[in-house]
Write a structure and sequence with these properties.
alpha/beta; about 45% helix; about 325 residues
Amino acid sequence: MITQELIIKFLRHNPSLSVLSVEKEAGLAKGTLSKAISGERNLNERHLSALYPVFSKYGYSPTLYENARVISIINHKGGVGKTTTTGSLGEALALKGFRVLLIDMDPQGNLSQILGIDNPEKQVVDALLKQDELPVIEISTNLHLAPSDIDLAKAEIELIISLGGVSRLKNKLVPLMDKYDYILLDCPPSLNALTSSALIASKSCLITLQPEISAVKGLNSLLDRIIEVRSSWNPSLEIDGIVFTMVKKNSVHDGVKEHVRESMAQFRVFNTEIKHLVDFQKAQVEQSTISKFAENSEAARLYRDFSEEFIQYLEVVK
């Protein structure tokens, strides 16, 4: 069947679906569903029974939201917007009402720092090297973080030499899968065991790409690692696509973007481009997410736009 919570979640994932049209198809009084969404009323069994076949027609199923979608944000080059994308996309999704867990898989701990967590008492490395559960800190409504700092670097050799070491993260996520809609992993700027662990644990990966030749040259190495993970550990790993970050308005970036769209035509390249804006740097200095630092800025708007495009893409491929 279907619950009020699942109805609201389905509508969030399908922003183009008209509430008024759904009410009409289900034979409900005008405003019944919109009031339920706003928290003004609860739907009864008759409402839910009438809505179930309508939502099923649009792609709903009882198992649709059993598990979170785990997504690795990756690029083996540093300074191409992985951490900013992880934090900003996660924040944008949380503001839309989705339950989001961010996992800092980078020993530099930049994601943890911009979310205000320095020197965490419990962190990801404790879960990977000990019997501890993955530590989760509430950052804001619907947004949680599993933090890290330089101690995470200790885990790499252990993950390599231990039997099943690179699968430990995947196992640690099992008890959390029904608690979140999205789990986003901020990967380190290298193709090391930590990145492999993230990819093994993931349903899909999102590539952040600065449109410069040095970044594009390493793209084939990144794709080779994804293929290796698919063949050895995680055959269902998908590539959600490529998002251009730190984009400048000049002929060099324009030419590189065109080259990527042509040479990587087998992958989705998202239409929303994240510009090179000073507000991103300012927000990092202030150890703040872009929305909290400058909610009405162009930088914050770009990630809201990207989250909308990303959600619509996921509805097509789910």
